[in-house]
Write a structure and sequence with these properties.
Chain B has eight helices and 16 strands. With 291 residues, chain B is of the alpha/beta class. Chain B has a six-stranded mixed β-sheet, sandwiched between helices. In chain B, a hairpin with a 2-residue loop joins strand 13 and strand 14. Chain B is globular and about 70 Å long. Classes of the chains: A mainly alpha (223), B alpha/beta (291), C alpha/beta (243). The structure holds adenosine-5'-triphosphate (2 copies) and magnesium ion (2 copies). One magnesium ion binds next to helix 1 of chain B.
Chain lengths: 223, 291, 243, 291, 223
């Protein structure tokens, strides 16, 4: 039993989710409160990574990130960043692919929130940032949670993009989903089942824990 | 000196309201905005606080310009040093009562002041509760305490006591006046309660459909006749009972009810809910303090 | 820990995985060169090589991809054919003995084959069906797998009663000793040539890559390939070096 | 006859409130719950409406049992024919004013009645507006109209007029009474306004910390002394001015302000905001109707 | 240019989204308002289809749906329903796979909604169903929209499960994502690009239209 793919998977899902939080909150904030005419366009663009089959999306990313291309070459030359067949590349790809799962729920959370809370904080002299972190975000916890869970779970199961960008290098880009795929491909169903079961169980426990804490179940039984 | 000139057409599906007001407030004064529901009081508050942009206008506070639509100056709400009690409270649901107050205070006020405030608004037992689990009046008291904790230069209170009973209302009226004086605040109040207005405010502005229709010393504006030593009151008829050839009429004056006798001719003209003026011809009142 | 540079990286098409593992093992023993296998579908691997993947050699499941890579400059030498695949008809049903002549039987609802566009075994199966003139008759029964391995999954799960797949499949642990199969007459389809190419993405392993190429066409490797259901020389005698 | 017995311990982080009340309401009566903020008035309403489950208790409405914790009977809110004005309005944000009313009506009431109601609460211009764009008082009026449109058997009003000014408030008080009588409703009101209570209600229940502390005819409960022909009032001191050896004191009584003269000894004992009783020794009042 | 895959794709996405709406609203309602101890478990289970790589999930479904298995056999025998290699099967698979994208946003919408609206409707004698359709759902429009967009877009791009369950039968189960994948695999990049571009453009227009209507932009310019 090789544990590295599993460790790699959770590492990837965790980093991706954290990065997505940092990216999605400002994006969702803009989408929720902007009155720009470009807003529907931006909203649509955020959803677009979903529309292409993952492998195909991965294929386009591969072309874009390849050092022989302008963008990839620039990264390679100036930042020493190789995005193809590296863990960093996997992260970037997962972030792009899972973006809508995080942005949309947070945005709808902001939209549902009464604007008087924002007003009250502004009048108290609180900056937009303070208001965001102390007032807005804590009051859309269900939406944040939805975004986090969807992005996390999706990154774990995500596989087409990762396989294309990552190249299945063991210990570096061979995550659990690819390992399972490999085993199924080579008709090793027992190994595939084992991997699936472990992946499934660990994720189940993580999510169950998150939901239980969120629902106050832990607190209730603790007391 | 606060100098306010505002014009705004309030969007409405039908029956647009054109708000057009101009008034001055002296430093340290407590003025009240009074007027019918929908007259534009809350909208004026929101424009002064910077939460709503007027179509045209200017707001000068001492030497500072907060707003000047012509020069395109418009300070954000954060930079207008204002304490605000919202008509709908706008408490932060994620924070307890205490946390709501702590969040509101700037650097200047300390925990002791917060403790005092909590005691005064009678929320000692509730300080660790979330707003969702408070009664209407309790929420309103938290909202008031939260505005006071900031020790703002200008305090704006949008019906801060409407959900409260007589006793706590009285107590908080006194306390607001005290804070207003102690910290030399300029306070603007919205209220529908006449005794509250007369007791608390230095100056009254009455609005109707977006226009100022009357302004002046509250007692004068509201009572319509000069204060006198004559014992005369306006009251409302509660019941009328016929007894032989006279009518016994109970009249509500303030929270007092008195019986008055009227003769047949007088009595026939009156009906329940009528407003009446009751006066004495000669009067020499005695005054007793009640404890 | 070994750095990535010290190993010879072998990109292997998924259906060659088991055979290549054996070959790589004995190559490592013989030459004392550490190797790493990257497994994927040939199409994906090709796209990745074009994206400058750090692969040194490419063991493909067909000849189209290696040729394409040579033409577009990802290799300094032409592709070679190292083996030929054999097509079989496989079924997992207990009492169903596959036969090309009665595929129209009622109990056969679905016949699995590779997508002729992407999978070489699919192309071969199509040729067989056309040569036997039974394609149009069976048209509604076909389901297409993305690759040979998906065809295997269709057959294995029982949703397709029979299917055309590679002979190498019955050597794998999941299927060995299960089901019934027949080998298809190799005159009915064009040889399924499997191409190999040395890549020039990274120059630091060129020596080892060439050693691997030589090993792959050696008799020793040939024997291994045979046991996994491949033949090393085509019945139609095609020149091992392609145009 | 509505017979209410309720017990509930209201959850609170500290200082639990144990609510324990028992009272009867006759058909067609209008009774008022009165009491300090947080006394449990809204909680009683919610339990009667079936929105909050009591720990123990029963509610009988005529021959029907709405709630009996012992027999585990608990009718859902839908089956208790109740009209409810919520303290926080609870208007439906997705519907216009008119749609809010239309949604609320059962099969019995027609569009004409809705039109009438809209006119009476002065919302004609606003009927196609969404609640978000209404002022506080306008929202309250919609909430009231929405409760009335149902013509419920029992009407429950949680501070239905607190955000309104004197004029519209008076008008709606009269209207509520009218509806109450016309449709033979049983009405329960929560109010802090003493004149409102005296004018409107047949019976008053005063609560404190979850217990009934007083009940009876409103005027008696609230004024603490019998109604008399004597002209005596409780008022509040607004200002005290010394003039030579006397004090001139302005006193607020209801919305009237009068001047009273006090001698030096008396005057020294008094201070601003004191409550005082003012009485005349002999009095023969005249009564005038005001139009 | 073969248009059938594109037509099939939008048909699949549309039917799946509609079905998901019917399924997700009750599920989300239960999750939002239930106080059951099982709630965190159910919440977790809804997210689980995301965790497995689509092809693997598809493989497990394939086994479950196969007429030689109990479940698939039952369907086949009693309902005459063949779920493998049929359009119906694709729909079922897509519904299962996209369920979390619809359920979670709607659930968080319900949770964010003030409970007094529900109370007000109940007191008026409105049933739970009336309240749900007339009051709750119209007031969580941003969340509903998020769910619909995520499920719709995701079904369009979904490909691993569909490929496995559907068997790539042209005109029946060969949707656009598979067609694009095919072209990429056979190094037909031009054709793949064309398909991608068309798929992308049509979806872009659809989503843009939805967002513009939702944002009131259409209304504003219409008047
Ligand atoms: N949802 C709740 N959870 C826990 N405690 C609550 C909840 N709602 C109210 N309470 C508490 O129950 C007590 C009674 O509240 P209630 O709303 O009945 O008061 P009230 O008499 O209506 O007051 P007010 O006049 O201020 O509206 C208060 O102490 C309040 O804090
Ligand atoms: N967000 C809004 N959008 C459009 N119109 C609004 C909005 N808020 C208020 N209005 C309208 O502007 C007018 C003035 O409202 P405002 O809230 O200032 O009244 P108010 O004097 O505070 O009344 P109240 O005493 O009832 O609170 C009303 O007719 C109201 O319907
Ligand atoms: Mg207002
Ligand atoms: Mg209350």
């Amino acid at each position: 039993m090789d544990w590295t793919p599993l460790i790699l998977t959770f590492k990837l899902a965790f980093i991706t989710t954290v990065l997505l939080l940092f990216i999605s909150v400002p994006v969702a904030y803009w989408l929720a409160y902007s009155k720009s005419r470009l807003k529907p366009v931006m909203e649509t663009l955020v959803s677009m990574p979903l529309v292409l089959p993952p492998t195909v999306l991965g294929f386009y990313m591969l072309i874009a990130f390849s050092p022989s291309n302008a963008f990839g070459g620039f990264l390679d030359k100036w930042l020493g960043l190789r995005l193809v067949f590296s863990f960093e590349g996997l992260i970037l790809a997962s972030v792009i692919y899972s973006l809508p799962f995080m942005v949309h729920p947070i945005q709808s959370g902001f939209s549902n929130l009464s604007s008087s809370l924002k007003d009250a904080a502004y009048v108290m002299g609180k900056s937009k940032t303070t208001t965001l972190f102390r007032i807005l975000l804590p009051n859309i916890k269900p939406s944040l949670l939805t975004g986090i869970i969807l992005a996390f779970a999706h990154t774990i199961g995500e596989f087409g993009v990762v396989l294309m960008i990552g190249g299945n290098i063991s210990g570096k880009t061979k995550v659990a989903s690819i390992a399972i795929y490999d085993e199924v491909e080579s008709l090793n169903y027992v190994a595939a089942n084992t991997y699936s079961l472990i992946l499934f169980s660990i994720t189940f426990v993580i999510l169950l824990f998150v939901y239980a804490v969120n629902g106050g179940f832990i607190k209730k039984f603790w007391q | 000196m606060i100098d306010v000139q505002l014009q705004k057409s309030l969007k409405a599906a039908t029956g647009d309201l054109y708000l057009d007001v101009e008034f001055k407030i002296r430093r340290g004064e407590l003025i009240t905005l009074y007027g019918k529901s929908g007259a534009g009081k809350t909208s004026i508050f929101r424009m002064i606080a910077g939460l709503l942009d007027p179509d045209k206008g200017r707001i000068d506070v001492d030497e500072f310009v907060w707003l000047d639509t012509e020069k395109k100056i418009n300070l954000p709400p954060q930079r207008r040093k204002i304490g605000f009690v919202f008509q709908e409270y706008a408490l932060f649901p994620n924070m307890t009562v205490l946390e709501n107050l702590r969040f509101a205070r700037g650097k200047q006020s300390d925990d002791l002041f917060i403790k005092d405030l909590i005691d005064i608004v009678d929320l000692g037992d509730l300080q660790n509760r979330k707003p969702d689990t408070l009664s209407g009046g309790q929420k309103q008291r938290v909202a008031l305490a939260r505005a006071l904790v900031q020790k703002p230069e200008i305090l704006m209170l949008d019906e801060p006591l409407s959900a409260l009973d007589y006793e706590i209302r009285n107590k908080l009226q006194v306390y607001i006046l005290q804070v207003h004086k102690e910290f030399d605040l300029t306070t603007i109040l919205i209220s529908h309660d006449i005794s509250e207005i007369i007791k608390m405010s230095d100056y009254l502005i009455e609005l109707d459909r977006g226009m100022i229709i009357r302004q002046g010393i509250p007692a004068e504006v509201l009572t319509n006749h000069n204060i006198s030593g004559k014992f005369q009151f306006v009251g409302e008829i509660l019941t009328i009972k016929r007894q032989d050839f006279i009518f016994i009429i109970t009249v509500l004056i303030g929270k007092e009810i008195i019986k008055v006798v009227a003769d047949e001719d007088e009595g026939k003209k009156l009906s329940i809910c009528d407003k009446v003026l009751i006066a004495s011809k000669a009067f020499n009142p005695i005054i007793h303090k009640i404890d | 820990k070994h750095s990535q540079k010290s190993r010879l990286t072998i990109a292997t098409s998924a259906n060659m995985k088991l055979a290549m593992k054996e070959i790589v093992n004995s190559f490592e023993k013989e030459q004392d060169i550490e190797c790493e296998m990257i497994v994927g579908s040939s199409g994906k691997l090709t796209a990745q090589i074009r994206g400058h993947a750090p692969f040194d050699v490419f063991v493909s499941a067909n000849t189209l991809y290696p040729e394409e890579l040579y033409r577009t400059g990802y290799s300094d030498e032409k592709a070679i054919v190292y083996a030929y695949g054999k097509l079989i008809l496989l079924s997992m049903k207990k009492d169903l003995f596959p036969d090309l002549n009665n595929l129209n039987r009622e109990e056969i609802n679905h016949i699995a084959l590779g997508n002729p566009k992407t999978a070489p075994y699919g192309t071969a199966a199509m040729e067989v069906l056309k040569n036997k003139k039974i394609f149009s008759e069976l048209k509604d029964k076909f389901v297409y797998g993305e690759s040979v391995s998906q065809v295997n999954q269709f057959i294995l799960s029982g949703v397709a009663e029979v299917g055309f797949t590679a002979k190498s499949v019955i050597m794998s642990p999941g299927i060995k000793d299960k089901g019934h199969w027949i080998e298809i007459d190799s005159s009915l389809y064009n040889p399924i040539a499997q191409g190999f190419i040395v890549l020039n993405n990274r120059k630091d392993h060129l020596e080892e890559a060439k050693k691997f190429r030589d090993f792959l066409i050696s008799e020793k490797a040939g024997k291994i390939l045979n046991t996994f259901g491949y033949s090393v020389n085509s019945s139609q005698k095609v020149n091992p070096v392609l145009k």
